[in-house]
Amino acid sequence: MPVQFKPSDIVRQLSEHVIGQDEAKRTLAVAIYAHFRRMANTAADSVELTKSNILLIGPTGSGKTLLCETLARILDVPFVTADATSLAQTQFVGDEIEAILHRLLDRAEGDLARAQRGIVFVDEVDKLKAVSGESRASSGESVQHALLKIMEGAPVRLKDGRHIDTTHILFICGGAFVGLDRILTKTHTFGFIATSGGDDQKILERLNARVKPTDLLEFGLIPEFAGRLPIVTRLHDLTLDMLIRIMTEPKNAIAKQFAAMLQAEGVELRIDAAVYRQIAELAIEYKAGARSLRGIFEEMMTDVLYTVPDHPEIRRVVIRSLFEAPQLLAVRPTPGS
Ligand SMILES: Nc1ncnc2c1ncn2[C@@H]1O[C@H](COP(=O)(O)OP(=O)(O)O)[C@@H](O)[C@H]1O
Ligand SMILES: [Mg+2]
User: Is the predicted pLDDT of residue 192 greater than 60, yes or no?
Assistant: First the structure.
């Protein structure tokens, strides 16, 4: 197993796909490193190292799912995502959880041993917060209890009669936790630090951004569930600059994808820097993080992709502004040809 991955290797590889979010990358990388060490050690060591599942807190579209997906690919372990909200809507939580583990087994192509070292990402766990007065059966709280069992490492019986051991399955939970910041500022005692200078302000922000288990309880997670998520890290709102980089830098960045598509038609795509900025500004207005970039980008490209295949003489597409029609440039026919 990939104990050979040092945390710095993991961060470097994550950075090929995920822009920014350095704090989350480092925390994840260290947690993963420890997780694989733990698995390698269990047989030999007398010290029982318990599993540390991870909680990723961050706004929508900031890269939580992307981080987990990329991580699973780097580690070459099976990976599935589950949505806590839909777990809370079902009558049969146990069946749903079994189905999640079954999907993990499918991803491992039926290899049980491989599935038992996979990663499960449970998104939107913040929607499971306990609400007083809600009936236990359908409440988020009961889903927390159900998830707790597999996060603790209980074996689960699958429909085909096999048992899947969840001891080494790593659970990463995610959520936006809207309102958590209010709890943090209320419960932290760092507020009195002088905040005159910019550096002080930064330190203060960092201290105040630390999430304590008690903050999660106040938010509405049950103590046992919060206790099973000892590693908490945060993703931050993406800045304009990061949004621009997301469109152009990652290995499968959207600009590279469209450039490759046009290149297949023998057409060169040139997009001015100003255009990326306009798209990023619009995405910030939409408040869905990097999620709206693709939609805006595709809209901009629709006419181009419609027109180009009909006009083999087009050799270059130049886009100078999001709000101006792209220029489709043909090569001048050489006389006599
Ligand atoms: N930090 C990031 N770096 C690169 N791409 C990102 C980043 N954050 C979001 N994206 C892009 O936005 C889309 C939505 O991100 P996702 O990871 O699903 O967000 P969420 O935090 O809501 O899980 C992804 O498909 C990805 O292309
Ligand atoms: Mg997500």
Answer: no
Biggest CA–CA distance in the chain, Å, is 85
Which residues of the chain form CATH 3.40.50.300? 2-234
Task: Please determine, for residue 70, whether its predicted confidence score (pLDDT) is greater than 70.
Answer: yes
- Asked whether the predicted pLDDT for residue 112 surpasses 70, the reply is yes
The best mutation among 66, 67, 83, 122 to test binding of ligand 1, ranked by most ligand atoms within 8 Å of the C-beta, falls on 66
- What homologous superfamily is domain 2-234 in, according to CATH? P-loop containing nucleotide triphosphate hydrolases (3.40.50.300)
User: How many CB atoms sit inside 10 A of residue 224's CB?
Assistant: 13
Helices (H) and strands (E) in the chain, counts: 15, 10
pLDDT above 70 (res 204): no
Quote the CA–CA distance of 60 and 82 in Å, as a whole number.
16
222 Cα to the center of ligand 2, angstroms: 22
The position carrying tokens 């005692």 is 189
Per residue in 303-337, pLDDT (tens digit) is 999 999 999 999 999 999 999 999 999 976 666 54
State the CB neighbour count (10 A cutoff) for residue 140.
24
Contact residues of ligand 1, CB 6 A cut-off: 18-21, 58, 60-66, 246, 250, 289-291
Per-residue pLDDT tens digits for 146-158: 999 899 888 999 9
d(CA 176, ligand 2 centre) in Å: 9
Nearest CA to ligand 1 atom 11: 290
The token pair that represents 67 in the structure block: 């981080």
Domain 240-330: which CATH number of 1.20.1740.10, 3.40.50.300, 3.30.460.80, 1.10.8.60 = 1.10.8.60
Q: What is the pLDDT of residue 290?
A: 97
